[in-house]
Amino acid sequence: MKTINPIAAEHLPALLRRMPKAELHMHIEGSLEPEMMFALAQRNGLDLPYPDVASVRRAYVFGNLQEFLDIYHAGTLVLRTEQDFYDMAWAYLQRAAADNVVHAEIFFDSQTHTAHGVSTDVVINGLHRACVDAQAVLGIRAALILCFLRHLSEREAFEALEQALPLRDKLLGIGLASSERGHPPEKFASVFAKARSLGFRLVAHAGEEGPPAYIWSALDVLKVERIDHGVRAMEDAALVARLREQRIPLTVCPFSNVKLRVFPALDKHNIGQILNFGLLATINSDDPAYFGGYINDNFTQTFAALGLTSAHAYQLAQNSFSASFAETSTKRLYQNRLDEVFETFQ
Ligand code: ADE
Ligand code: ZN
User: For residue 257, how many other CB atoms are within 10 A of its CB?
Assistant: First the structure.
């Protein structure tokens, strides 16, 4: 393993901001800032149940995942046209590029929008066009992962998959999101098997609020390649050993975990332990407009709260590239950029 020079705590935020990184766990609907929510509502002739931006932000206090999902869902009602999806994704990609994100794998929930009468192709075409433009204009590579909503049935997930298939070339993978408790991964065994046979890369949220058993079944039944969140894996020693031995990535989202009360505060988060156990963990923003910050905010505040070091920073950035679905040659390119920043940083 590469030796990383220790860097004084006061210089760590600059290093964390400057280092290239991949973001692998971010729901594009969760990047919809209240300002854009109002702009889109106006453009589409819709009313919001809030008088202004400040009152929207004041509503962002959550007791658990479900309370968040209810508010998040209300925000998605302003998304109607392909241009709306483009504008939302473009805003995120600009923000991510400013944080030195060089590679983003972006989640979206097509079922949320089809339930509002917006067709899957409107959603995917808008998001995909922003990804193409981002590579050309911002130099950031971005790809899309369609997440099934686990509170709905497997039959509905099959319908969502079918509706997306004509746009197969614009998608990288399939994920599983929404209300975790009571909706174990195995509920979606057949539709994930189908997606796998079609060549989609597979991920699933597990072990956010749900028990370690959900991580086991995401791996063994759904055969996912990454676990989104997975912080509750630390309750199960055999699972920790497996994640380490098989180098299964966990896409951890510290601000999200605190806002949704998985941990009482950032200084009680277990990301330091996860890394020190040698697991392939990454730091991500999940729903940055709702949880108080983008990826670099997650990095800098988590490092400050837990006293993490430059060696952790290097490990996290390297993990983000290893855990990504980029081509091997692209990963090598990212790794070289990372090494260059660490070698020249002072
Ligand atoms: N959808 C958006 N954010 C989510 C989260 N943190 N967990 C599950 N589903 C989500
Ligand atoms: Zn998530």
Answer: 23
Residue with tokens 């969140």: 229
- Percent of the chain whose predicted confidence (pLDDT) is above 90: 97
Beta strand pairing status for 173-177 and 201-206? Answer: parallel
**pLDDT per position as a tens digit, 243-291:** 999 999 999 999 999 999 999 999 999 999 999 999 999 999 999 999 9
3-state secondary structure of 120: helix
Euclidean distance between the first and final Cα of the chain, in Å? 21
Task: State the pTM of this model.
Answer: 0.98
Condensed to tens digits (0 to 9), the pLDDT of residues 280-306 reads 999 999 999 999 999 999 999 999 999
Domains held by the chain: number: 1
Would you tell me the crossing angle of helices 189-197 and 154-164 to the nearest 10 degrees? 20
- Two tokens at 11? 């210089």
Q: Which of 157, 162, 211 is nearest to 189 (CA)?
A: 157
Which domain does 135 fall in, by range?
Answer: 9-345
Q: Please check whether residue 294 lies inside any domain of the structure.
A: yes
CA 128 – CA 126 distance, rounded (Å): 6
Sequence-distant (6+) residues with CB within 8 A of 20 are 100, 101, 102, 317, 334, 337, 338, 341
CA of 179 to the centre of ligand 1 (A): 8
Catalytic residues: 208
Q: Which CATH number characterizes residue 58's domain?
A: 3.20.20.140
Closest CA to 107 of 176, 199, 160: 176
Centre of ligand 2 from the C-alpha of residue 228, in Å: 7
CA proximity to 256, closest of 111, 103, 107: 107
Query: 259 CB less than 6 Å from ligand 1?
Result: no
Residue 3 lies in a domain: no
| DSSP-derived secondary structure letter, 90 | H
Look at ligand 1, atom 1, and give the residue with the nearest C-alpha.
178
Q: Ligand 2 center to residue 291 CA distance, Å?
A: 11
Query: Could you tell me if the CB of 209 is within 6 A of ligand 1?
Result: no
